[in-house]
Amino acid sequence: PYEVLIVGGGPAGAAAAIYAARKGIRTGVVAERFGGQVNDTLEIANYPGVPETTGPQYAAQLEQHVRNYEVDIMNTQRVTGLVPAEQPGGLITVQLDNGGTLKSRSVVLATGARWRNVNVPGEQEYKTKGVAYCPHCDGPLFKGKDVAVIGGGNSGVEAAIDLAGLVKHVHVVEFMPELKADQVLVNKLHSLPNVTVHTNKQTTEIQGTDGKVSALDFKCRAKGTETTVPLEGVFVQIGLVPNTEFLGDTVKRSKFGEIEVDARGATNVPGVFAAGDCTTVPYKQIVVAAGAGSTAALSAFDYLIRNSAP
Ligand code: FAD
Question: Where is the FAD/NAD(P)-binding domain (predicted)?
Fold first, then answer.
């Protein structure tokens, strides 16, 4: 059995693996796709000490860094369930899609999250060519340009307020008749001179020219009228879904499906820790996930020295 088994090979899982392996304990990483979301990222420019890199390059470096240590990497393996130990210090079972099982004295869950898609023509085609999901990451690419934010909940309105300070004009497109964000955010949004709010509008298409986003189409749900707004960027902000469905009721999750963790990365299940975008941690960013991964691994080590057999 492993002493620490990490589920997920993104920044959180890789950091956890490096920290665990450096304690000299038997460490495994099981991941569906090593690297995680950064594989889908074009440019990364907000990781301290790495002024600029690309997603695929950073993903390859994460894997190389983990391979520098004695870590079993089980890539392209999907985890489908977790069975807690019978008593603290006992073996936790991790079930795999292929029918196999892995046993470990502690587990770090680092399965990340995925952005909900709006599923309109143009979204897939222009991903990273004007269609974006992370204002903290990609906002600066649209400096001085016109953009739209799809979604008028807290994340959409926060993104619009953030972008309004960088870009020329922001169009906020909300499906429902009213913005669903907190009132203080809505008031702030309405106070900004370079924001237009379109409520009760259904996004129908993201148009492109020469391989880049050039306009957004939406339809009024009350009158049926159609509008085309010329712009260069579309931020989709209709939710981030944690990859935690496989846990069922075994580990406590928030109403959004995020694994509930304390400041040490501990979950409600003894020996099971969690880190990164799959947890309740605020701000879903590489540096935040990597920090949380190291915290979870150190907490797992602390758990092991307190709960190991005499
Ligand atoms: P993830 O990166 O999501 O990794 C999750 C891992 O778990 C993967 O290996 C996945 O295959 C695996 N996994 C999931 N489910 C299972 C399962 N059931 N069984 C086995 N393995 C599983 N952040 C920044 O800081 N800067 C940026 O510039 C930036 N740009 C971004 C651009 C895009 C397009 C996207 C989508 C995100 C961007 N982010 C950026 C956010 C950043 O990528 C995430 O915050 C970060 O990757 C989270 O790391 P994580 O390890 O928690 O999860």
Answer: 2-293
